[in-house]
């Protein structure tokens, strides 16, 4: 039987047991550090990013994570989508995303600003700030477009996203609702939000956009 001797505030262990304990600790904490070191893909957006209407594991960020894992890429997708999110809210929570030091940022915002008079007048400034600050960290930023066909609104307002992407150094990607809007096969009962199959379309499209830059 091993004897543990106490000398003041120190505990002496058999050297072999000490090595075994250290090895066990390494096995326990190594996966945690490995996970923390995975480059982050950050998804910022409204209810369509949050995964409204489906279980969390069927949201587009969750399905994107599975596609990335299945393809053997070592990235972690973090979902910062929230129902009802406005660009004002995104700016207020900017520090949360910045702390993650994302390598890739997916931004799909602006729809809820139309129904929020305070946010509506600041949409362009907020989007520019959000995009430019992430670009300055050397993150690859993708900004989702919005069109009258997929998202409602008018042509003048929707052209804002193309303009911001071009002038602030982001890549313009299609509206999240492209190929989904108006199709009951891909929408829940409210005919506005995707179902699991609709979110799968979004995840596959975004994976296709990102795959060339994944390592």
Distinctive features:
215 residues; alpha/beta; Rossmann fold; five-stranded parallel sheet; two-stranded antiparallel ribbon
The span between the termini is: 51 Å
Shape: globular
Strand order of the largest sheet: 4-3-5-6-7
The whole-angstrom Rg is 22 Å
Which sheet architecture does the biggest sheet show? Answer: 5 strands, parallel
Which stretches of 5+ consecutive residues score pLDDT under 50? 1-11
Residue share in helices?
Answer: 40-55%
Helix count, DSSP H or I runs of 4 or more residues: 10
- CATH fold-level topology: Rossmann fold
CATH H-level superfamily: SGNH hydrolase
| The CATH class | Alpha Beta
Total tally of structural domains: 1
User: How many beta-strand elements?
Assistant: 7
Helix and strand content put the structural class at alpha/beta
One letter per element, helices H and strands E, the order comes to: EEHEHHEHHEHHEHHEH
Mean pLDDT: 86
Q: What is the CATH architecture annotation?
A: 3-Layer(aba) Sandwich
State the oligomer. Answer: single chain
């Amino acid at each position: 039987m091993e004897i543990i001797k106490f000398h003041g505030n120190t505990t002496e262990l058999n050297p072999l047991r000490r090595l075994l304990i250290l090895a066990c600790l390494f096995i326990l904490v190594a996966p945690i550090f490995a996970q923390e070191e995975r480059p982050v893909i950050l998804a910022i957006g409204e209810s369509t990013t949050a995964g409204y209407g489906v279980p969390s594991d069927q949201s587009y960020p969750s399905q994107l994570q599975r596609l990335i894992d299945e393809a053997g890429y070592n990235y972690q997708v973090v979902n910062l989508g929230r129902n009802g999110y406005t660009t004002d809210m995104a700016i207020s929570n900017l520090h949360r995303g910045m702390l993650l030091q994302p390598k890739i940022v997916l931004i799909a915002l602006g729809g809820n600003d139309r129904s929020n008079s305070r946010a509506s007048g600041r949409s362009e400034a907020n989007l520019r700030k959000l995009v430019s600050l992430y670009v300055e960290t050397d993150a690859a930023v993708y900004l989702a477009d919005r069109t009258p066909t997929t998202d409602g609104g008018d042509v003048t307002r929707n052209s804002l996203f193309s303009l911001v992407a071009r002038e602030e150094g982001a890549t313009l990607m299609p509206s999240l609702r492209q190929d989904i809007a108006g199709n009951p096969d891909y929408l829940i009962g409210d005919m506005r939000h995707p179902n699991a199959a609709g979110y799968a379309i979004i995840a596959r499209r975004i994976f296709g956009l990102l795959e060339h830059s994944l390592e």
